[in-house]
Design goal:
The chain is built from no helices and eleven strands. By secondary structure, it is mainly β. The N and C termini lie far apart (36 Å).
């Protein structure tokens, strides 16, 4: 399976950040897979943003929940992240990943290469 993030690399403050993750080699509706977004600000650790499950249900980080929406396009085998009202503190490398609940420890067993999003006017 391969994951590929895409989207603008520069977003202005107060606007909405939108990224898409395209999945190849696996169906987004396959049972037990959770399609996940993470981010890593410069010089900081990895932060979990949320996921959309194979069923279509979603779950978000409590700290970002009010600004986050994750959706999917099953016909194109993609899922997307929208983060509203961004500030420079949302500048980060954003990653999509697959959580595999069939695996031992529910491993994150596939990752995109990451895409840098800078929030700046």
């Amino acid at each position: 399976v391969q994951l590929q993030e895409s989207g603008p690399g520069l977003v202005k403050p107060s606007q909405t950040l939108s990224l898409t993750c395209t999945i190849s080699g696996c169906s987004i509706t396959t049972n037990s897979y959770y399609w996940t977004w993470f981010r890593q600000p410069p010089g900081k650790g990895l932060e979990w943003i949320g996921y959309i499950a194979y069923s279509g249900s979603t779950y978000y980080s409590s700290s970002l929940k009010s600004r986050t929406s994750i959706s999917r396009d099953t016909s194109n085998n993609q899922f997307s992240l929208q983060l509203s009202s961004v500030t420079p503190e949302d500048t980060a490398v954003y990653y999509c990943a697959r959580r595999n609940d069939r695996s031992l420890g529910n491993a994150l067993d596939a990752w995109g290469q990451g895409t840098l999003v800078t929030v700046s006017s």
